[in-house]
């Protein structure tokens, strides 16, 4: 306990405290009913309701919230270290957001997510839920290209515990340790309890992660899969697309006519399809190094990329 990093934001613990209180109340009422039953006494519904406390009514006004916000620590904006993304996001990612990273097969979804996470980890604590590959595979590949990364103490790697409940518990624990930036690879590796439909099962993942991002004021990047018929939403969940604050998509660039390859291996198109942070869509052709699997600007220019303002519908 003494070695834990203190948190200046007590709001991180409100949900946990409320859940514990509800469990205590359930236990108390259950004990009362059990005692009545053992004594052969029938308890009327009105009597049971009398044991249940009314819902709290200590709602805050705008002024009350404004006073609280004034005393909260300033949330940082995290630069991704990828110039075209930072420019599109006006300097980097704001906290308290769920970001979805989608793309065509083999377009480099994991590569971009890891590139962002590694860049942020040079200055801040991060976490990588490495579910698509083993930790050994990722570490071995990284050390071949950058041996000095061995000394990095700011990136936690989680390689097990696939169900959404375990993932959520670990995110809460990491947030208490000061981790504010998380990458999860990927949607389809996360397990949930069987529900009535795939839509419900997949939506549970996005709902849980979005609520965690908001309540803990952290940033979660979730790599997602999409179908050929709907590239705008995650596989199996239209609600997943609604839960995100930002959606980034990576697409291949077709090779020039006459070339045998279908796609140009050294180019990609980056599209920001949803952007609650700045309200701008974004699209740019960028370079992709097939050896280092890193993204960078195609043209070293100060000219702005293609953007378009949009308003909430």
TrEMBL record:
GO-annotated molecular function: ATP binding
Keyword Nucleotide-binding assigned: yes
Superkingdom in the source lineage: Bacteria
InterPro entries, per the entry: KaiC-like_dom (IPR014774), P-loop_NTPase (IPR027417)
Entry keyword Nucleotide-binding: yes
Key words, A-Z: ATP-binding, Nucleotide-binding
Residue ranges occupied by any KaiC-like domain in the UniProt entry: 79-292
Pfam families xrefs: ATPase (PF06745)
Name of the protein in its database record: Type II secretion system protein
């Amino acid at each position: 306990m003494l070695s834990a990093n203190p948190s200046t934001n007590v709001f991180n613990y409100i949900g946990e405290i409320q859940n514990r209180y509800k469990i205590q109340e359930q236990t108390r009422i259950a004990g009362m009913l059990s005692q009545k039953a053992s004594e052969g006494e029938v308890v009327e519904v009105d009597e049971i309701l009398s044991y249940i406390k009314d819902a709290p009514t200590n709602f805050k006004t705008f002024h009350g919230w404004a006073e609280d916000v004034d005393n909260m620590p300033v949330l940082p904006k995290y630069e991704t270290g990828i110039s075209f993304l930072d420019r599109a996001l006006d300097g980097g990612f704001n906290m308290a957001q769920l970001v979805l990273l989608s793309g065509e097969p083999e377009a480099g979804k994991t590569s971009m997510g890891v590139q962002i996470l590694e860049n942020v980890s040079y200055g801040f604590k991060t976490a990588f839920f490495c579910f698509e590959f083993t930790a050994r595979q990722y570490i071995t590949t990284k050390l071949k290209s950058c041996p000095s990364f061995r000394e990095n103490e700011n990136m936690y790697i989680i390689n097990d515990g696939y169900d959404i409940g375990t993932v959520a518990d670990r995110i809460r624990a990491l947030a208490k340790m000061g981790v504010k930036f998380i990458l999860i690879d990927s949607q389809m590796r996360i397990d949930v309890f069987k529900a009535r439909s795939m839509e419900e099962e997949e939506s549970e993942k996005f709902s849980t992660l979005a609520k965690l991002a908001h309540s803990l004021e952290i940033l979660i990047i979730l790599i997602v899969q999409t179908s050929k018929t709907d590239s705008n939403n995650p596989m199996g969940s239209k609600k997943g697309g609604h839960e995100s604050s930002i959606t980034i998509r990576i697409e291949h660039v077709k090779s020039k006519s006459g070339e045998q390859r279908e796609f140009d291996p050294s180019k990609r198109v980056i599209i920001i399809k949803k952007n609650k942070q700045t309200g701008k869509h974004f699209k740019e052709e960028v370079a992709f190094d097939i050896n280092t699997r890193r993204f960078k600007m195609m043209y070293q220019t100060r000219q702005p990329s293609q953007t378009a303002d949009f308003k909430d519908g």
